Amino acid sequence: MLITFEGIDGSGKSTQISLLKEELTKRGLRVEVFREPGGTDVSEMIRGMLLNPEIEIDPITELLLFSSARSQLVAEKVLPLLEEDAVVILDRFYDSTTAYQGYGRESVPIAQIQQINETATHGLEPDITFYLRLSPKVAAERTKSFEKDRMEQSGDTFFERVYQGFEKLSQTEARFEVIDAEKDINTIHSNILNAVTEKLGKNDTD
User: pTM to 2 decimals?
Assistant: First the structure.
């Protein structure tokens, strides 16, 4: 099973991924977690470039670098693990590219980004995507004390477009489970765990 987590920074993805991994591991499942971009030597090197606030990157170059890192992760780690019946959890996947590089950067038309996404993922789609919905205003308040990387320094207007991009995806993608990220941590975890348990049950009967 492939589970992805999406949302703007400050939405609590890392916390919820950790809680979900812990619970699924207790149930005897093999669970592997990767962040995007990253997860392989090649992908981590690309990550270093993408998040470095001291360099400027053209929006189309940025799009292709994120996609290159993803392709390597999927080919080297994700697909082999899924073949071994592991549960793979990704902190961001191609929906982030659609939201950030598509709606946020407005680098190329969304339809073209969707084609790039399909290529970069080797045709792989998540079984379920948790979208932790949080307004840019609340996210900015939560992350105001954080040291900002290159992407996080992109400005309020950029993140409003990213947020609207995720909102549009949540309305068109049936695999999206929208989670109110302003609720308390335990409530969010319970909602996520219930959805994953239901999905696992359906997969067992397919």
Answer: 0.95
